[in-house]
Amino acid sequence: MVQAWYMDKSADDPRRPHRREPARPVSLEQLRGLGVLYWKLDADKYESDPELEKIRKERNYSWMDIITICKDKLPTYEEKIKMFYEEHLHLDDEIRYILDGSGYFDVRDKEDRWIRIFMEKGDMITLPAGIYHRFTLDEKNYVKAMRLFVGDPVWMAYKRPTDHFEARGQYLEFLAQTA
């Protein structure tokens, strides 16, 4: 099952867990309250998994590719890692399915505090359009992930502040309704 927690305020290496002391775990229910969806799947059979196909069909995830993030596989690795870790939002949902390795998605809660979500093999997550977030590898420096989209992929990330976007406004309305 996925692990999530409130982060400390340390500026230390972002690849470390950054668990707040005392620990403040975050439940799946709390993540759902932020619009974050989670599934645990069998990554060893992703090419023929009926559960993944069912999710893709129900949620209209029609496009996918696979990215490997490590020094040996990703061109301009250092630049990409820095870019992924900059706080941003997308105008569409961000859907990632970890096929191997591990890393962290950080999302903002309703009070603008960081929640760290540890993602490892078999974890699939959907971050809603308009949520501020970022991604980093953990200290293993390796992840292989499936990227899914509704329709054609949109690779545009908008750095904070971006409250003027309709997707952000819709997300804030969602948060207000779940309060």
From TrEMBL:
Residue positions binding Ni(2+): H88, H90, E94, H133
TM helices/strands, residue ranges: none
Cofactor binding annotation: Binds either 1 Fe or Ni cation per monomer. Iron-binding promotes an acireductone dioxygenase reaction producing 2-keto-4-methylthiobutyrate, while nickel-binding promotes an acireductone dioxygenase reaction producing 3-(methylsulfanyl)propanoate.
EC number, UniProt record: 1.13.11.53, 1.13.11.54
Keywords: Amino-acid biosynthesis, Cell membrane, Cytoplasm, Dioxygenase, Iron, Membrane, Metal-binding, Methionine biosynthesis, Nickel, Nucleus, Oxidoreductase
PANTHER family found in the cross-reference section: ACIREDUCTONE DIOXYGENASE (PTHR23418)
Name the record gives this protein: Acireductone dioxygenase
Organism: Balaenoptera acutorostrata
Top-level taxonomy: Eukaryota, Metazoa, Chordata, Craniata, Vertebrata
